[in-house]
Amino acid sequence: MKTDPSQRAQTMETRAADTGTKFDWTDVGRSLDDYGNAVLPGMLTPKQCETLAVLYDRDDLYRSRVVMARHGFGRGEYKYFAYPLPPLLDELRHALYPLLAAIANRWNALMRVDVQYPDELEAFLDRCHRAGQTRPTPLILQYGPGDYNCLHQDLYGTHVFPLQVAILLSEPGRDFEGGEFVMTESAAHGQRAEVVALRQGDAVVFTVNQRPVPGLRGGTRKVAMRHGVSAVRSGRRHTVGLIFHDAQ
């Protein structure tokens, strides 16, 4: 059954208001500045997580399936959703984008990158689509024992939004063991790795490619970020990823 457009708009407005007030976005921005990531605890309820996780077996919802080992990405698999996205993910994508666009624009100004992101997701997606980037990028990942995700960056075309959101759908210690979200930072002075602890329903906002940091002698320099998932020791782990640019 199709959702009435006015009802969908009202739902999205409520979601946007909830997202804007549930978290301290000044703290989110500060954590992203300092570490390249920020945790949004309890973004989804356990029921919402379970509802999304069971969608993994619904092949009609996806445009493609990727077995990581075939491409050297690690082990495990993921599926890219087709349009239209599941309503909850569509609402979250629209609600989070304007909050993150403000941070992305501030970062680009600091890094002297001549790109500014529009206030609303639809305008940014229109920019992607006019450049031939028309394939949706939100995805769901499934890991079993021994599966892992190599460190990587999700760069799909000319227009790349510099922040991404992953939401853990499974409960560590109950549904799976291991499988920690990992980030690395590479710069001329060395490297840094960080394990980001998440519980079921927690989201992590993280840097897709580069972020600005204070220079050693003043000014601003760029550091490169990558993300991945350590090996799952037992059980099954599901995650959804919200990527804001579409792919070619």
Automatic annotation (TrEMBL):
Gene3D superfamilies: q2cbj1_9rhob like domain. InterPro entries: DUF2086 (IPR018655), Oxoglu/Fe-dep_dioxygenase_dom (IPR005123). Keywords: Iron, Metal-binding, Oxidoreductase. Pfam families: Oxygenase-NA. The keyword Nucleotide-binding does not apply. Residues 134-247 form the Fe2OG dioxygenase domain. Belongs to the iron/ascorbate-dependent oxidoreductase family. This is Fe2OG dioxygenase domain-containing protein. It comes from Cupriavidus numazuensis. The lineage of its organism: Bacteria, Pseudomonadati, Pseudomonadota, Betaproteobacteria, Burkholderiales.
